[in-house]
Structure formats: C-alpha cells, structure tokens
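[scheduler] slot 2 assigned
[scheduler] job type: sequence-to-structure, two independent chains
[scheduler] chain ordering preserved from manifest
[runner] begin chain α
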Amino acid sequence: MRLLLSAAFVALATAPAMADEIRIAHIHDMTGALEAYAAQSQIGLMMGLEYATEGTMQVEGNDLVVTEYDSQLRPDLGRALLAQAFGDDGADIAVGPTSSGVALAMLPVAEEYERILLVEPAVADSITGADWNRYIFRTGRNSSQDAISNAIALGQEGVVIATLAQDYAFGRDGIAAFREALEGTPARLVHEEYAPTDTTDFTAAAERIFNALQEHEGDRRLFVIWAGGNNPMSRIQAMDPGRFGIQMATGGNILPAMVSYRDFPGMEGATYYYYEIPQNPVNQWFVEQHMERYGTPPDFFTAGGMAAGIAIVEALRASGGSTDAEDLITAMEGMHFETPKGEMWFRAEDHQAMQSMYHFRIAIHDGVEWAVPELVREITPDMMDIPIRNQ
C-alpha cells in the first residue's frame, strides 16, 4: 500500500496552521491497468480545486488539504483505505476511485461513516443504482450516459450490432444499458460477447462475433466497451472484419489509446470529453493551463477530475464551509456547477451528474499523433433519458 501526500500541499503540512483544514481523501488506482486514468484524475482534481478557489486553495477561510491513497485495483484495499481515511486520518470528503469494482466495495464505508464519497471516474450504473446510498455523489458519467449517447450515435435504420465488453461490472453494466437504449432505435443488437479483463487473444471471441453478424443483413457494427490495457480493437481489426462488411465502433478514450483509432477513419461513437469540443471559459482556462504546465492537452479523465474539484468547492461554499454530510447533501442535491464540459448538475434522486456527451466521427489530422474525434453533434442531457436505477 502506498499513501502519498500531494506535493502541492506539502507546504500546508509543514507550515504553522493559519486556518482550519478541510481534508479531502483521493483514493484511486495508482497501480495497475488503470494507472494512466488515475494520474489524469489527480491532476484534474488539483486543477479543479485551484480554478474554483481562484488559486487560494481555501473555502470560507479553510485550507483544502488533499491526501492520495493507492487502491491498486483491489476492492478490499479500496474499502480499507476509505475506512482509514475517514476513521483514522480525519478526511471530511473522499473522491474516487478509478475502478468500478473498487468503487462498489467503497460505497458502504461512506454510509457507515456518514461522509460524502464523490465518485470520479468509476462508471458502473450500480454505483448510483442498485448499490447506491445517500452519501454517494458522482461527477463522472455513468454506464447509461455512455450507452445512451452511443445508441443515439449508432442506432440508425438497418444497423445490426454485436458487442464485446470486459466481463466485470463496468462492461456488463455498460452493455446492459446499451441494450436497453438501443430498444428505442431502429437498430438491432444481435450478439453479446464478454471477455476477462486480462484477455490478450481475442480470436475465438471475434470468430463468434463475425459468425453472429453474418447471419443478419444490414449495416454490421461491432461495438466495443473496454477500459485499460489489452484493448481488443486493433487485434480484431487485424482479422479483417471488413471482409464480412463489419465496421468497428466504440466510445471515446484517453489520447494515448486513441493513437490506435487512426486505424478506423470515419468510425463513429460518443465520447465524454475531447479538449477541442467544449467551448466555454472553464475549458479555455483548463486547456491553456494544462498545455502550459504539462506540454499536452488535457485528457478524458483530467476533465473528470477537474469537474470533481469544482463540485467540491461549490458544495462547500453552498454549505457555508460546513463539512457535515447533511449540510453537504442539502447543498449538492440539484446543485448546478460549471465544468470543462459546460454545466453539470446533481440529480436529486440518485446524485448522478447530468451532463452532455458528444457524438463524434474519427478523422486523421496531419501532425496529430492520435485520431481526432470530430464533433458531429452535442448530445445534451435533455436528449438522454437516463434511468433512475436506485428505486
């Protein structure tokens, strides 16, 4: 187990206390297949706190102190670390984690300690659905938002779709939501395939998918939901699905992963964020500052982390600086706040952040090492009937 104090706050830990502290625990999967996502989330969280406090890192005269914990993709460790953060380390609010499996293990701890867990970026619907409790809020998109936006992008007349996803909560929740969303479109879902997260040979799965799609006439698509390493898209593309009239489809991803999307010009899907798409003052600051500090544009999970940081500050302001969970719940239910994606708000029924998604078409730009998801249209919250799954 690693416990790291964010470098940005080392000075606060060593300097004489000039104000009360609000302690924020950031528990995320810094080790393992999702470590790139975790690193982005941490950078974004710190930038969000900075932006929302105009650089003071204070709310109502209280210093914001962030401590990082590494959950290592282990649900048991994530649960133990959250209990440590709340019980031993005096955390007032927690943020994270990266993995849906880890998040599900952490939810009961927030309820036990009666403190807020702001989930970012774990996606599974069950986090704000069947396993939800009133101390859980989420700025990250959920599986239904992913699925419905992709169904809007792909669900056209004459389209037949097979799916491939990871065999755990993220993948199965995602496909369940996608299946449900497609029922309201002219497209048909004809086959589902699941594979372990550590799969490296997709030959058998691809052959089953190809055979299933060949039984149906129409515009054949293979829609892939995959997070972390071993993404199967390029491996399956190497098997030449085009000879069966099959095109690949998927949602957005981090920029390093989108290098492989260059093999799929014209591919369509829906994404959570791409730095050139949203046009608003928050995103303008975010892109400029990230480029200046890191030499790269902000990415998928950096934007999510920033949204979480902004939400925390706005909630604390609305509560008058109180970290009491009841005060924060009152402040956060229905709360609107500006993010790099534009306006979000927490739905009162399940505390899921309502937010736009983006229908894209892949293009190849000279001098850009990754494929560019060019905007086809913004899919606004009113265009997505996101189910309330905790009732």
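[runner] end chain α
[runner] begin chain β
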Amino acid sequence: MMGRMLTAIVLIDADAARIPEVAAAIADIRGVSEVYSVTGEVDLIAVVRVREHETLADVIADQVGKVEGVVRTQTYIAFRTYSQHDLETAFALGLED
C-alpha cells in the first residue's frame, strides 16, 4: 500500500467558548489536512491523512482527542474516495452527446 494515503474524517464536539482556539490547535497537528467549523450536530470536522494505521491512532487518539477544549470525537475511516472528477466520469459512461 505504498504511496496511498489513509483518510479519516473526525467529528469533534468542542467547548463552545473555545471553538476557534481548538480548531487552530487541531489544524497545527501533523497529519491533519483541514479543519472545518460547521453547523449541525458537531462543532468541527477535521480531515486526517496519513500513510499508516498506527499514525492514524496517534494523530486522532493521542493528539486531536487531547487538545484542550475537545469534549468528544467520532472518527470515520474512509475506504473509497469519490471525487467530482470520478463522479462526472461515472455518469458519462455510455452516454453520447
């Protein structure tokens, strides 16, 4: 599995008074590619991209989960990616203009 990245989407509940600081601290963690402040059930969503499962555990459990102000995390491991390009290709299959 060389060269292939593992991606995890981490839903984060944070102390409401500290959301910007929590987001900035998480964004500084190596392996975290993006952090979004969102509406809805959770406060933040982080995208983690690493090369090894062991690193995933280290980043999420040992670092993201221990940031001051993080109340709870829920992690989803991505096993397949559908980009906009992939979707356009899939929908175009067999269609003639």
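[runner] end chain β
[qc] chain β: Helices lie at 19-27, 53-63, 84-92.
[scheduler] slot 2 released
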